[in-house]
Design brief:
Structural class: mainly alpha
Strand order of the largest sheet: 2-3-4-1-5
Strand content: 5-15%
Largest sheet: 5 strands, parallel
Radius of gyration: 40 Å
Oligomer: single chain
Number of strands: 8
Number of helices: 39
Shape: elongated
Distance between the termini: 68 Å
């Protein structure tokens, strides 16, 4: 399918066309149309008939008229009707409605095979139109001075002088027209569409025209309209008893059949099938039934007319490409549903997303419980939802998309509160969805999948990470890998090594140095957790081997330091349930780690890593005898020792002023590298440098003054 055809097919509101309407009927409305055609058999040389097909905007009335025309054209020759199309909405001129209406009938009749009879009817229509006294036939109407001339010209008889009909005999003209119509061998069926698109005054004029000519013999009229709109138009123009007025105009009023549940399913399947193939691909394992769940939990009730599907998928087609692989298709569909069926709810979601998910997407600091936040906004949600006639269905969609709202409303939560991958209930996914695409700082699930399955893309993806999303990226790598299941093969060992190295990237280093909140997770902790999730896919022996490989990897020293803590420092050993190092390999693994630290120091790379403070602390705790060699290498590449002191004297971090610096509680941790007295002498010299700024200045002061000093402004901390 070409892009042009695919795009065109997505416009499902294109009405069915005569010649293919019955074949294209997805809603099984052929039986209804057949009944309408049977009703039209009442048209006879003795009487005409006015039938209305009544349905809401978008209910498929134009398609029904096309199907009806096919049935009428398929009737045997003698029974076949002359079908006349008239769409008053296309006329665009209130004063032209009558002349165009009568001219349409005259033209159609003249073109029939019954040339003589057709010309006679056309002539009498022409004559009648000239003699049409609007004041007599339509009480309250103003005379239309130009009607007679316009109708004459439109049927090709302009040579006949209008002035000859200044004082017409209305009844005589009407009788002549009726006689001509009775002799005409075919029924005439006039199909009038889009009456509910007219302005109120135009709608009223059209109704009055039908009332005036509706009793002509051999002529039937099928009016496709929204009765509520037409009645409202009559009310607006102060027509008394508007509904009764329509009953006087129309003899048979037939409502468009409502959509059955199977029909709604069929329309949804057709619309889904016309989305781009990439949109229908499975991006989120284990969620194959999510689309069906949305449909059964509110969406199906909101689809009342075929055009509801059209409007819904117009929005889906517009926003899905930017969200593909980031948001589950069902959630995109749910978001689009709120956009078109409950805009006030969508506006609240856009303005106050925490009312649905419990915290502001992108916020780093939240002190209130998620349930409490969602509950606080319950009245706002209810006010937005209750504005709509189908409030219950909208509320069901909201509850399904955002299970926390169902919990707050004490409603059914569909068996879960936890959100899955690509669900709007996740604040970071909701942020992406509301922006209709991923921004540079947003977490991209597409990139996560590429990192998992395409090793050649990993360097490019790593370079694209930002401080705001790098930690979440690593966490989601582990979560996605764990959720894949063992039936989907990935090289868990090589992926784990790449994750361990990923932490030393620029985004992670910047995040560590620019830390601004107490809730920030340390990158190496998150990486170890993700690696542990991968290790669960490996046999126990391979998991142990993986831990040793990372400890020996000179490009993954930050994660190596964390694995060393887990294996060799007793405080963390009770948390260890993966990445064990075999006892016989522990010494060699630690030696490899120490060698890497020394090499990093010699190359001047140590303080360009994500966690130099952690690396040095692990070295002094587990290989104290190697610390002086490492210090000598550090001193050679940075004689000021600014980076060393800043790393070794890092203290606590709080939400008040951020990072503080102090001497370690165990002074030997620092003494393993260098004599503290010598370091204090250097501190006194460094503090004389007027260009020295915080936070390095705070670290040197903390050493010299033996106090806890904030790196932000040099004030004293109570740490």
């Amino acid at each position: 399918m070409t892009q042009e055809k695919n795009t065109a097919d997505l416009r499902l509101d294109r009405p069915l066309r005569t010649g293919e309407a019955l074949v294209g009927d997805l809603l099984d409305r052929g039986g209804f149309v057949a009944q309408v055609s049977q009703v039209l058999r009442r048209i006879s040389p003795k009487a005409g008939l006015v039938v209305s097909i009544e349905g809401a905007w978008g209910s498929g009335k134009t398609s029904l008229l096309a199907m009806l025309e096919e049935l009428l054209n398929a009737e045997p020759g003698k029974q076949r009707a002359v079908v006349v199309h008239f769409n008053p909405w296309l006329v665009g001129d209130r004063d032209a409605l009558l002349r165009q209406f009568l001219a349409s009938i005259a033209k159609a009749v003249k073109l029939t095979d019954h040339a003589k009879a057709g010309k006679q009817v056309a002539k009498e229509l022409n004559t009648y139109s000239k003699a049409f006294d609007v004041l007599k036939l339509i009480p309250g109407a103003e005379p239309w001075a130009s009607i007679i001339k316009s109708v004459v010209e439109s049927v090709g008889n302009a040579s006949e002088a209008v002035f000859e009909y200044k004082t017409p005999d209305i009844e005589a003209r009407k009788v002549a027209l009726e006689n001509a119509l009775r002799k005409f061998p075919q029924r005439i069926v006039v199909l009038l569409d889009d009456l509910d698109r007219l302005y109120p005054a135009e709608a009223f004029e059209m109704v009055r025209i039908i009332k005036a000519v509706g009793d002509l013999p051999n002529v039937g009229y099928v009016l496709a309209w929204d009765e509520k709109y037409v009645s409202a138009a009559l009310d607006k123009l102060s027509v008394p008893f508007a509904a009764t007025y329509l009953d006087k105009v129309v003899q048979v009023r037939l409502p468009v059949p409502p959509l059955s549940f199977p029909q709604r399913v069929a329309l949804m399947n057709k619309a889904l099938g016309r989305l781009a193939k990439e949109a229908q691909d499975s991006h989120f394992p284990g969620d194959d039934e999510r689309l069906g769940a949305l449909f059964h939990n509110g969406l199906s009730e909101l689809i009342e007319q075929p055009r509801d599907i059209v409007r819904l998928f117009d929005v889906v087609c517009s926003i899905e490409p930017g969200l593909r692989g980031e948001i589950h298709l069902a959630d995109i569909l749910g978001l689009a549903t709120l956009m078109i069926k409950a805009p006030a709810v969508f506006e609240l979601l856009n303005r106050t997303p925490q009312a649905f998910v419990g915290r502001r997407p992108g916020s780093r600091m939240e002190f209130r419980d998620v349930k409490e936040v969602v509950q606080v906004h319950a009245a706002e949600r209810d006010a937005a939802i209750d504005r709509y006639p189908h409030a219950k269905a909208i509320r069901d969609v909201v509850h399904w998309l955002f299970p926390q709202t169902a919990k707050a409303d004490e409603a059914f939560t569909f068996g879960r509160i936890e959100f899955g991958e690509g669900h709007l209930a996740s604040p970071d996914r909701l942020l992406v969805a509301l922006h209709l695409s991923t921004r540079p700082n947003d977490l991209s699930l597409v990139r996560i999948r590429q990192y998992l399955f395409n090793p050649t893309k990993r360097a490019e993806i790593a370079a694209s990470l930002q401080p705001d999303n790098c930690i979440d990226f690593v966490a989601q790598l582990g979560n996605m890998a764990e959720g894949l299941g063992n039936d989907l093969a990935i090289d868990a060992e090589s992926l784990a090594i790449d994750i361990a190295r990923l932490v030393e990237g620029e985004a992670f280093v910047r995040r560590a140095r620019e830390r601004i909140d107490v809730f920030s997770m340390r990158a190496e902790r998150v990486a170890v957790q993700a690696i542990g999730q991968l290790a669960k896919r490996l046999p126990e022996q391979a998991s142990m081997s993986l831990a040793e490989r990372i400890l020996s990897d000179e490009m993954a020293v930050s994660v190596a330091a964390r694995i060393a803590i887990m294996n060799f420092i007793s405080d963390d050993r009770d948390q260890l349930d993966y990445l064990n190092v075999e006892a016989e390999h522990r010494e060699s693994a630690l030696d490899a780690f120490a060698n890497n630290v020394e090499r990093e120091a010699q190359d001047g790379n140590l303080f360009a890593r994500a966690t130099p403070d952690l690396i040095l602390w692990v070295l002094t705790r587990l290989r104290p005898e190697r610390c002086k060699l490492a210090f000598e290498a550090i001193q050679q590449t940075d004689p000021t020792l600014d980076n060393f002191v800043e790393a070794m004297l890092k203290g606590s971090f709080d939400s008040h002023k951020g990072q503080s610096y102090r001497l370690p509680k165990d002074l030997q941790e620092l003494g393993n590298f260098v004599a503290i007295d010598l370091l204090k002498l250097l501190a006194a010299e460094r503090l004389k440098d007027e260009t020295l700024d915080y936070p390095v200045k705070a670290a040197w002061r903390a050493l010299l003054e033996e106090k806890s000093i904030y790196g932000k402004d040099g004030s004293e901390s109570r740490d």
